[in-house]
């Protein structure tokens, strides 16, 4: 569990972050979002003390981070950034092994851990001896995530880790991160300015503006009950409804009535269902069961709720 | 018709013109008299014809469409002709001495130096066009060095005035060469010991750069002879002595500081900020970041600075002879005093060779750091 307790950071007279408090539960995926200059990166970097807060306390599992030795603290927190920051003079294996070696793990365990991580990120073991400049942007980013996870940290801090990727690679990376989050159960704090990325990944969103926390809660809450006009606009303004549909699945709204045509899966999002209706020029879609046959349907009116 | 390889065209044209019009050897009745310049054709014989013919062949090759095969031929021919030229110079010098009175001196003329320079440039250009690796460059250099050594040790150069000057000063030469290398090595070592930490200090606080570089830049603008002279008074006052090796080394260090400090600073500041951020975020200590990340990544730029410093110091150390520091400069200044060009060359040629060797070795080292980064 990570607790930010009245955290502020000011540079001279200018407040970069002021009085931010929120709590991220063990195993949660929290996205810190906000426009440029809203203090989201600063907030994240105060957790592993790359920036020291001017006021307030940060606790990880109840321990005040300010009381911990700096390097020891950082070695138990995974850290991945937009520029990835792989060491260009070290090969992939050495890059991944950075923190385990700092922690003086036996070499055998280090090697084993590298293998595990390459498997977790579905990377070819032959990549071990490659140097960063020989990798694609997507591969570099995955190695960056592997390196952040290497010493099995309690918490993973990610500062726009997918910011430099092209849209397609970015989508794959998101799916992968979601999978890794589910399989490892790590607590993840993720900074992004992209609200869709936050909605697709996070189970908690902290929305910042001008260094202040405007709203903190599950995505659906920010969509349905925005604290103010700014939150509503930031969450999508006129397309807010579509984003809401993207968060819900067909199974929640389907009816046992029959319909003809190719069935869609019950896990399909309502937004995707709407898209299918428009494409197929129909107001009712069959929904498939696990067996493949249709066992219900969803109508245009069901989408509204 | 246009030449396909303009570099080879121009260089071989120059070499050809030198073969025809300029003196290849100068024959003088004694060491100090100015002699009579003889062209290859006046010297006669097969070597002259062969050398001129080779230049024409290179000229012709510059019209052949550029291809790797052609480059190999140009490279091979340039190296072969270069070596042949050395041999021809020795052969013709010995030949022209057989019937000459005792004391006659034969020295190398403009044609020799011009063709030598052009051929070397053609070879270097070909190596560049072939995108030759370190090993190929090393091999080309080794062939030339080995051939020169063979021709020299075979006594082919003994007729040349340059060799006469060397033979009468063998011990002195070895001592001067050693002294020269020592002066440079000590100066470069001290410059690194002082300059690298200073560079790091500037990299850590960019606001310090204006003052530091201001002083170092000013030092660079002082003419070397003036700096050597300026050091005499304060050092004498300190009781160290204003002449000899100490002021020479101090001056060389002062000149070497700017490139060392600037390149250390550039090497360290040039490391990607993201890399440093990641390193800090993962819990590397500042010392670990310096030794494991910043220094290895900044090394190629630092070595580039060291390369400049080494070559510069080797050249500047010539002037150090003026304040009694010894080294190869002593031959240069003796030669100037005696109006004996070959004595000047005895000091200058090894200095050039040293500078080229230092440059080559440090370039190799820098290449090594860039290519196999771990």
Write structural notes for this entry.
The complex is a heterodimer of chains A (305) and B (374). Helix content of chain A is 37%, strand content 24%. Chain A has helices spanning 40-47, 70-75, 92-96, 98-102, 107-120, 137-149, 167-184, 195-201, 219-224, 229-235, 240-247, 270-280, 300-304; strands at residues 2-11, 14-24, 29-33, 55-60, 63-64, 77-81, 155-159, 187-192, 204-209, 212-217, 284-288, 294-299. In chain A, helix 5 crosses helix 6. With 374 residues, chain B is mainly alpha-helical. Chain B folds into 2 domains: 6-161; 170-371, Orthogonal Bundle (MetI-like fold). In chain B, helix 1 packs antiparallel against helix 3 (46-61). The interface between A and B is medium-sized, with 30 and 20 residues.
Describe the structure in brief.
The complex is a heterodimer of chains A (305) and B (374). With 305 residues, chain A is of the alpha/beta class. Helix content of chain A is 37%, strand content 24%.
């Amino acid at each position: 569990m990570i607790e930010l307790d009245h955290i502020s950071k000011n540079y001279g007279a200018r407040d970069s972050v002021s009085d931010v408090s929120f709590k991220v539960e063990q195993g949660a995926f929290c996205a810190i979002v906000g426009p440029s200059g809203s203090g989201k990166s600063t907030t994240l970097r105060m957790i592993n003390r790359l920036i020291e807060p001017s006021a307030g306390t940060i606790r990880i599992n109840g321990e005040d981070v300010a009381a911990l030795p700096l390097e020891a603290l950082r070695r138990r927190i995974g850290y991945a950034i937009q520029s990835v920051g792989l060491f260009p003079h070290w090969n992939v294996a050495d890059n991944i092994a950075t923190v385990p070696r700092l922690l003086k793990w036996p070499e055998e365990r280090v090697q084993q851990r590298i293998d595990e991580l390459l498997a977790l990120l579905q990377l070819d073991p032959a990549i071990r001896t490659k140097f960063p400049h020989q990798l694609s942007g997507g591969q570099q980013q995955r190695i960056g995530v592997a390196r952040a996870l290497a010493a099995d940290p309690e918490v993973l801090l990610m500062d726009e880790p997918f910011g430099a990727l092209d849209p397609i690679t970015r989508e794959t990376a998101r799916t992968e991160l979601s999978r890794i989050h589910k399989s490892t159960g790590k607590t993840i704090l993720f900074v992004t300015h992209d609200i869709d990325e936050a909605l697709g990944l996070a189970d908690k969103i902290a929305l910042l503006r001008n260094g202040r926390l405007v709203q903190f809660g599950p995505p659906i809450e920010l969509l349905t009950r925005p604290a103010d006009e700014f939150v509503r606009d930031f969450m999508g303004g006129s397309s807010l409804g579509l984003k809401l549909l993207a968060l819900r699945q067909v199974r929640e709204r389907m009816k046992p009535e029959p319909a003809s045509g190719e069935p869609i899966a019950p896990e399909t999002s309502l937004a995707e269902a709407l898209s299918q209706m428009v494409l197929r020029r129909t107001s009712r879609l069959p929904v498939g069961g696990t067996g493949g046959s249709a066992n219900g349907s969803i109508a245009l009116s069901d989408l509204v709720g | 018709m246009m030449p396909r390889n303009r570099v080879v065209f121009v260089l071989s044209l120059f070499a050809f013109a030198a073969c025809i019009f300029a003196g290849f050897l100068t024959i003088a009745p004694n060491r100090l008299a100015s002699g009579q310049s003889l062209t290859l054709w006046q010297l006669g014989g097969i070597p002259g014809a062969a050398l001129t013919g080779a230049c024409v062949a290179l000229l012709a090759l510059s019209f052949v469409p550029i291809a790797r095969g052609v480059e190999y031929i140009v490279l091979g021919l340039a190296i072969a002709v270069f070596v042949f030229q050395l041999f021809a110079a020795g052969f013709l010098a010995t030949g022209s001495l057989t019937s000459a009175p005792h004391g006659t001196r034969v020295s190398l003329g403009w044609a020799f130096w011009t063709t030598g320079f052009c051929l070397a440039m053609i070879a270097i250009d070909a190596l560049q066009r072939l995108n030759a690796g370190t090993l190929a460059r090393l091999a080309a250099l080794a062939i030339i060095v080995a051939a020169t050594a063979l021709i020299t040790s075979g006594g082919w150069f003994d007729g040349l005035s340059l060799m006469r000057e060397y033979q009468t000063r063998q011990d002195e030469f070895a001592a001067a060469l050693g002294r020269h290398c020592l002066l440079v090595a000590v100066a470069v070592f001290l410059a690194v010991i002082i300059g690298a930490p200073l560079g790091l200090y500037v990299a850590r606080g960019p606001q310090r750069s204006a003052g530091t570089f201001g002083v170092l830049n000013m030092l660079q603008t002082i003419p070397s002879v003036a700096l050597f002279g300026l050091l005499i008074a304060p050092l004498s006052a300190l009781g160290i002595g204003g002449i000899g090796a100490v002021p020479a080394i101090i001056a060389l260090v002062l000149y070497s500081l700017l490139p060392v400090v600037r390149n250390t600073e550039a090497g360290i500041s040039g490391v990607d900020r993201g890399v440093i951020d990641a390193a800090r975020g993962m819990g590397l200590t500042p010392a670990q970041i310096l030794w494991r990340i910043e220094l290895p990544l900044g090394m190629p730029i630092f070595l580039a600075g060291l390369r400049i410093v080494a070559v510069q110091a080797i050249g500047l150390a010539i002037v150090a002879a003026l304040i009694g520091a010894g080294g190869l400069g002593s031959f240069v200044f003796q030669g100037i005093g005696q109006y004996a060009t070959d004595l000047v060359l005895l000091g200058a040629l090894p200095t050039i060779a040293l500078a080229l060797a230092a440059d080559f070795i440090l370039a190799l080292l820098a290449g090594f750091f860039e290519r196999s980064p771990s």
